[in-house]
Amino acid sequence: MKEWIALNMTPGVGPRAAARLLERFGSAEGVYGALRSELERLRLRPEAVESIALRDRHEEAARELERVRALEGADLLVLDDGAYPQLLREIADPPITLYVRGAWAECLEAPCLGVVGSRRCSTYGQNVASMLSRDLASRGVTVVSGLARGIDAAAHRGALEAGGRTVAVLGTGLDEIYPRDHRKLAEEILERGGALVTQFPLGTPPVAENFPYRNRIISGLSLGVLVVEAAENSGSLITARLAMEQNREVFAVPGNITSRNSFGTNYLIKGAGAKLVQQWQDVASEFPAEVAARMLPPETKAVSAGTPQKAPEPSDLSDDERSLLALLSPDEPEHIDGLAEKSGLDVSMLSALLLGLEMRDVVRQLPGRCFVRKL
Amino acid sequence: MKEWIALNMTPGVGPRAAARLLERFGSAEGVYGALRSELERLRLRPEAVESIALRDRHEEAARELERVRALEGADLLVLDDGAYPQLLREIADPPITLYVRGAWAECLEAPCLGVVGSRRCSTYGQNVASMLSRDLASRGVTVVSGLARGIDAAAHRGALEAGGRTVAVLGTGLDEIYPRDHRKLAEEILERGGALVTQFPLGTPPVAENFPYRNRIISGLSLGVLVVEAAENSGSLITARLAMEQNREVFAVPGNITSRNSFGTNYLIKGAGAKLVQQWQDVASEFPAEVAARMLPPETKAVSAGTPQKAPEPSDLSDDERSLLALLSPDEPEHIDGLAEKSGLDVSMLSALLLGLEMRDVVRQLPGRCFVRKL
Q1: Model ipTM?
Q2: B91, B256, B339, B341: which to substitute to probe chain A, counting the most A Cβ within 10 Å?
Q3: A105 — contact with chain B (CB < 8 Å)?
């Protein structure tokens, strides 16, 4: 374990160099057992080769571990640790150590969603981040974000309001909260069943180049990433791109095309295959089936007789909609022309009524202008 | 021709009955030559059978044609007329007569786009309808809409402002402008190279059940339909559905998920395959290749030497972006790992820079994390 921590603290060993070392030597122990010539062949920076060969970080690593464990509820996970988060381990260049604090195990066991967006967001973005985080957290989803101003803070706060779980991934050391005026928010997260996570050693100050690594952990811990607002060329778009490269689902909230802050999210939907999100269900329905099933109302109810029941009629149907619904069966698709014959309505009217029923989720359209009633 | 007009004026013969009659008898002349028993077998309404058998609309049809031709610039097209719009003829149940007025031939020769949306729209919707219509009309697209309040009016006006062409499809007779306070707008459309179109006989008043037929003509005349704003269960969503059934491209403008008026457009993008539109180029790029090529700046320039030239560098590139761009070729895709080696940048940073270049349209991502420079 000390070797992992030492390796993580070695100057010139970032995630890519670490990945290369591990690919070659299998473990931190293996790295420290390697010959200097072997290290040199991996094209590491000279100071990294030097440091590894001299094992000059080992004492510092021992002290680091002590200091982490002295913080209440904090711990240090390393890559070959069983407790290391499974989803994060699967990304291309996982951090080799993970500093955690708070109820991290419970938080990361639940389905996690990254919620990210602009620091300088609009009121709309703030409201939506908070609303969706609240809706999802209250249904058991852990909201993972970056503790930044704007959307990040709104997402953490939304989850807390719902009494749900939230994880703040830092671009600094566990003991250096950034921005400083979010120290209270960080405390609240810890007090209320949330967690802080970072790959950076204690005392690491906020440095611009560390934040992309932070973003990759947000998506790496999560089943998907929801981008709430993002301007052109913004960090949130990079997080979205990284999430796609990690094979994570990417979700985006659309917004007015006249708003700079929605340019990036609209772009993700238009050009990058992000799923458009209008409400929390749009996120839940893309989660793995067993997670989605727990969150969403069952589409099919198994009843004692063994036959599926029709869904109850929404109470706000018009007479026309009600009689049209009565013509539809859950088993036999009806062609729109047949429905026109049976109902006496013309195709334009029928289209209107069917669309209304579809939007209320009681009817489904099949290819070839056929329709069935939903179960 | 008189037969077509008479058939269109026959009580109980709407587009569906007309389509059935034409399928059976081939032409209006054929319909009037049919035996009463044959007509009865088509399950027409009794008054329709009666009227056709007695040819009791023929005189009225002759008068109608005279009256239409007495209106300045007005004419009447019938389904087997060479001048009848080709795209409209291809839909499932085209109107058998089309009353036209103004520069209809020029308008319908150009690529047409239906622009529709809520009557009670927001300021956002109005601005966007006008902006996109202006942008497209100034590039030779005819903006087709329904002369209604709200989005329709903004679309017509946007096209007129750009000095472009616009067609108003009516749900009433050519001589009955609805709503009445749009009579001035209708006049302006005619004066400035636009046109009015309807399937309904002179004197037809505004009746709710006629408007879905009007909507089907808007999409039928057009290559695609752009929905700017639409509430849940709105008429514009029906137009979108009809457009899809007619195999027309459907476009939608996203909006804030907190706006009722954007619920429908967001829904179309999320669930119905509508293309998200942020700017006019998003519409143009989905048009048939030859139309798109005329509107959009060429992606490849043929130069005298016969080799394609690289697109000029945008002037606002950072140094990092510029040196990254220099590493990319238009012919040989570069893998992101190779780019990392060559540039000395790590993958997270590279992702950020590449995304910025992609959004400025100078780089394209290929499958498997490979990138090429655009021509």
Answers
A1: 0.80
A2: B256
A3: no
